[in-house]
Amino acid sequence: MLASALPGAEIIVVSNRQPYVHKRRGGSIILQRPASGLVAAIEPVMRACGGTWIAHGSGNADHDVVDDADRIEVPPAAPTYSLRRVWLSQEEQDGYYYGLANEGLWPLCHIVFVRPTFRDSDWKQYRAVNARFAAAVVQEAKSKDPIILVQDYHLALLPQMLRDRLPDATIITFWHIPWPSPDTFGLFPWRAELLRGLLGSSVIGFHTQSYCNNFVAAAGKFAEGRIDRERASVAVADGQTLVRAYPISIGWPPAGLAGQPPIANCRASVRARLGLRPAMRLGIGIERLDYTKGIFDCLRAVEKFLSQNPEWLGRVVFLQVAASTRKQIAIYRNLEQELLDVVREINGRFGTANYQPIRLVVRHCEPDEVFEFMRAADFCMVSSLHDGMNLVAKEFVAARDDELGVLILSEFTGAAEELSDALIVNPYHERAVADAVNRALLMPEPEQRERMQRMRALVRSRNIYRWAGQVLLDAAELRDRQGIRSADFARN
Ligand code: F6P
What we know:
- The protein is α/β, with parallel strands linked by helices.
- Helices cover 45% and strands 18% of the residues.
- The chain folds into two domains: 2-249 and 465-491, Glycogen Phosphorylase B (Rossmann fold), CATH 3.40.50; 257-461, Glycogen Phosphorylase B (Rossmann fold), CATH 3.40.50.
- Helix 4 crosses helix 5, helix 5 packs across helix 6 and helix 10 packs across helix 13 (367-376).
- It binds 6-O-phosphono-beta-D-fructofuranose (F6P).
């Protein structure tokens, strides 16, 4: 269907985060898949469609493996698309990525009561780095009308920069995090400029309709956008941008599932690795170590659960896997120590010589290992305080081909709008989450199966290929209209 809707179209993805990172370990180079929802979602699409993915080359061995044009064909084992790396100096990363994107826009867009920091110097770097990505896109484009998929809040100015240089391109921007209310967005010092950057897009996508509504309201209020509610579009100058909800998803079947042993083996091997008895019940949480993820709330809820239900002591363990992230920023650096302290405190309160109720793994895990943990668990907890979508929730469902296991899911994730068969909780309400843990552990298998079957059917059908299909079909429709308009123009 896509091939006929977009015959011969050139596809270019642009994001800050790259799908493959090369790192030096000892004397050799290892390949890592970053812990990133963006990568989990977009990579299967690129494998299927081919094209070029432009991203920051952040690994310390990335330079060593690219060709003269800074490209490498990936996936390395069986290449289907090109990865073009953009190199950023430490100063650029500090201002654009750590500063503006992650100390400014990230807390601005997530309701977690962390004050955003806005520095003129960061904004300057953000603009400069967006311009560097624009130059890379123009350099990579082989046609005058490529389809450019711009990803996330790091590159908000890129769409208009591309519109100026590739006026016939179809530019589709996807914002992977929540879009805040206009009042909150109004705190951003460069709000009109950022909006005008985004409004260079042909289409801008968000995970949910409410983020779309917030964006449209902000564009009307701060960028003098003319809003067409019927078409769900915003117009500035002579350009028009469609605003659409495309709930993102994962590949089905997910790559992490390939080669997984049966569930019973995963249960046995994970328990053996953790030194747990075979009958030990296991809950898991798997996230980047980010303050938006509600990891502390989750652990406190497990603590409450244990204090309210002492009959479970010695019979259940909660495994928290946390990948370090953005450690240049003080608040992230401190999280690891705080987490260790909380785990030590809870284990000190409930643990014994041979029983520690919380297990903590702070390191990067590759998708295979993540899926093995998910297949070994009795329940999975996603306790984000605010999250655009949260693909861990969808991955857990996809991992459970035995149709068992319980998902406990924060109501403040985009995923909660779709996965209503999870146990939906308010992560701020400790007792409610503790009760959900108890309910998950006591849930009879027929009920688990019924819920899991419904969630699996949903993730299977609303998978990332369908997401990409919807995005690209909207692009195809826009290109048709544009073609008709140009033909009319040529005739008159
Ligand atoms: O949630 C937004 C997002 O960009 C995701 O797409 C991704 O999972 C996460 O942040 C990763 O962040 P970073 O690229 O900073 O490691």
